[in-house]
Amino acid sequence: MSETKHNWTKDEILEIYNTPLMELLYQAASIHREHHDPNTVQVSTLLSIKTGGCPEDCGYCPQAARYHTNVEGNDLMTVQQVKAQALRAKSSGSSRVCMGAAWRNVKDGAEFDQVLEMVRTINKLEMEVCCTLGMITENQAHRLAEAGLYAYNHNLDSSEEYYKKVISTRGYQDRLDTIGNVRKTNVTVCSGGIIGMGENIEDRAGMLVALSTLNPQPESVPINALVAVEGTPLEEQKPISIWEMIRMVATARIVMPETQVRLSAGRTEMSREGQAMCFFAGANSIFAGDKLLTTPNPDVSEDMELFKMLGLNPQKPFIKKMQPESVEASASQYQALGEKPKWTRPEHKIERNEEAKQKGKVLK
Ligand code: SF4
């Protein structure tokens, strides 16, 4: 069995990415078969539990308050609403629910307590629970772990160099620090990125270096294709080709053999044949539901038809790791500390983000 290597260099990863396609597919598919069942793909559901109004300036994101997009903001969902959606997701084949809140970072208080209750509730439904809530402290990571969180998502988005051209309100090290805080618990790490934001191939390789040299490597790596949304700074980016997505998935599979590689945003632009090639290249998860947070996604019935056509089975929960125990709030060892950590605010200027912000002000 191929071993997991933690010292990949950018040159090595570039060489893999640029391998002739048939050879690249063969290598990636061979490694995939050593570590995973090639006929099983996890279906996950992404729920936006608090939409819009985010103070950050991520250039790709329609939820940033400063841009003018068609996204309607929503307050935090109730536990009952989340439970109803999770049950619906489970009945249509999802084994994992990822809850996303448009926050810069988690703040201790009633809203975080409500999220912890959502985690307990979904854990009891015997589904893997993942959260993506922005930056978190070590104590907050422990509180999520105690509630029964299975995974925490915190994407690196791109290479460290290109990150500075997309986001100015926080630094790459903040991302790594949050991942480090999650690693101090038994919660698994989900971290990936977006291609098609105008980055070059070196940046894609740089992101894979940053992810694959983490030890342990993330258990889950979502690979997104940018969905360019009107009103955001990246609204004019041209869609990437399917070949770029296949190469990215195959390279991620080779450098992170045990990781669950997730085919994420941008699937509506992909043909069925293209998606099938991504599965062959090592992608073994998709997000189901007609929306991915706020951007379009294929309908569940279309996905199930695709699974049937390809002979794929939805993956059961807790195949890779046991279901975490969930401790009730009253028996919890970790309490809110009311911390106010100093996450960085590099605040360098990104021209296109500034322009989108000014345009947004005029239109609002
Ligand atoms: S990606 Fe997340 S942090 Fe960035 S603006 Fe959107 S919701 Fe906020």
Would you write up a description of this structure?
- The protein has twelve helices and twelve strands.
- The protein is of the alpha/beta class and 364 residues long.
- The protein has one domain (10-317): TIM Barrel (Alpha-Beta Barrel), CATH 3.20.20.
- Strands 1, 2, 3, 4, 5, 6, 7, 8, 9 and 12 form a ten-stranded parallel sheet that branches. The protein has a two-stranded antiparallel ribbon with strand order 10-11.
- Helix 2 packs across helix 9 (242-255) and helix 5 (138-147) packs across helix 7 (172-183).
- The protein is globular and about 55 Å long.
- The N and C termini lie far apart (57 Å).
- The mean pLDDT is 94.
- Bound molecules: iron/sulfur cluster (SF4).
- Iron/sulfur cluster (SF4) binds next to loops.
**How would the global form be characterised?**
globular
CATH structural architecture? Alpha-Beta Barrel
Total number of helices: 12
Radius of gyration: 19 Å
Q: What does the largest sheet look like?
A: 10 strands, parallel
What's this model, at a glance?
With 364 residues, the protein is of the alpha/beta class.
Blueprint of the fold:
Blueprint: H1 10-17, H2 21-35, E1 40-50, H3 79-91, E2 96-101, H4 110-124, E3 128-132, H5 138-147, E4 151-153, H6 160-163, H7 172-183, E5 188-190, E6 193-195, H8 201-212, E7 220-225, H9 242-255, E8 260-263, H10 272-280, E9 283-288, E10 291-292, E11 295-296, H11 300-310, E12 313-314, H12 351-363
Parallel strand pairs: 1-2, 1-9, 1-12, 2-3, 3-4, 4-5, 6-7, 7-8, 8-9
Antiparallel strand pairs: 10-11
Helix pairs in contact: 1-8, 2-9, 3-4, 5-7
EC number: 2.8.1.6
Protein name: Biotin synthase
Enzyme class: transferase
